[in-house]
Amino acid sequence: MAQAKAKRKYTTKSKKNERPQPGPSGPGTGSGPGQRMLEDMQLHGFSKGTQKNYMDAVRTLANHYQRRASRLTEEQVRDFFLFLVNEKKLASPTIKLYYYGIKFFFEKTLEQEWHIFDVIKAQRKKQLPYVLSQEDIKKILSHVKNPCIRMCLIMNYSCGLRLSEGRNLQVSDIDSSRMVVRVNGKGNKIRYVALPNRSLELLRKYWRNDRPRCSYPWLFPSRIKKDSPISQSSVETAFREALKESGVARKATVHTLRHSYATHLLENGVDIRIIQGALGHRNPKTTAIYAHLTQKTALILTKALNKLMDNL
């Protein structure tokens, strides 16, 4: 009886001749389960980016059937994931995003315990990330024309930051007395990373000559929307163009700078547990992947193999 009442409070009547707009709970209203899901995610401490991705996943499910997601059956959800796998042929990380968003909606917001969420498992291909050499990074950054974006990318590499962490840095996050940077990471988890001397020098030069003049706290403010940090798309586009112009024949994205940071530190003898803390990894296995990428690891292995073969 209590469950029936709970479901009824989400039901809204559409006005006659009013064209329904797709919402998180499907075509119809932006209130009800959709609003409840948003509130649930806020209570879970999800970042705004995660909230948007999860809402988009549920919205796509609803639009697929052209009805509210809260009215779909378990079988329909199952068929939707088969559609993503067999017809859309989406990559495993994308399917995982749909999975976690839709699972959260049905299990947390609607309190549905469905077996299908135990069945779905996106197989992720084990791929080692690409790594750039220090020379390649220097070459790419020299082709970034926008000084604000260039400095943002320098911070991403020199501090091992995610793109969102770098572009959202605030002036108060730079602690030159302790030579650390305060980073607001995934799930709003705060960590402190070392600030290299050279990065501080470049930051001061950027501050004097190139930072857009505004009273907002962003270290890298947008020139279009001064009350916002520089956009993700602006940084990504500038990096792609610089990569192309540099002639560096590597598959690389802004996130490659973070992979390169970790690999270069490991090559220079920094303990992997220290790198784990700098990257904000909870699981040491996530950081351990960089041990496979270093030139020193390859050299040690080659020497050992040569020694083995000498005895044959």
Class per helix and strand makeup: mainly alpha
Q: Main beta sheet: strand number and arrangement?
A: 3 strands, antiparallel
In which range does the helix fraction lie?
A: 40-55%
Indicate the low-confidence ranges by residue numbers.
Answer: 1-29
Number of helices: 15
User: What is the correct CATH architecture of the largest domain?
Assistant: Orthogonal Bundle
For the record, what CATH class of the largest domain applies? Answer: Mainly Alpha
Rg result: 24 Å
Tell me, rounded to a whole number, the average pLDDT. Answer: 83
Number of strands: 5
Could you characterize the architecture of this molecule?
The protein has 312 residues and is mostly helical. The chain folds into two domains: 21-119, Tyrosine recombinase, N-terminal domain (DNA polymerase, domain 1, Orthogonal Bundle); 134-300, Intergrase catalytic core (hpI Integrase, Chain A, Orthogonal Bundle). It has helices spanning 2-8, 33-43, 48-65, 74-86, 92-109, 116-119, 134-142, 147-159, 163-167, 197-209, 232-246, 254-267, 272-279, 284-288, 295-310; strands at residues 21-23, 26-28, 174-175, 180-184, 190-194. A three-stranded antiparallel beta sheet has the order 3-4-5. The protein has a two-stranded antiparallel ribbon with strand order 1-2. The longest helix has 18 residues, at 48-65. The chain is globular. The N and C termini lie far apart (78 Å).
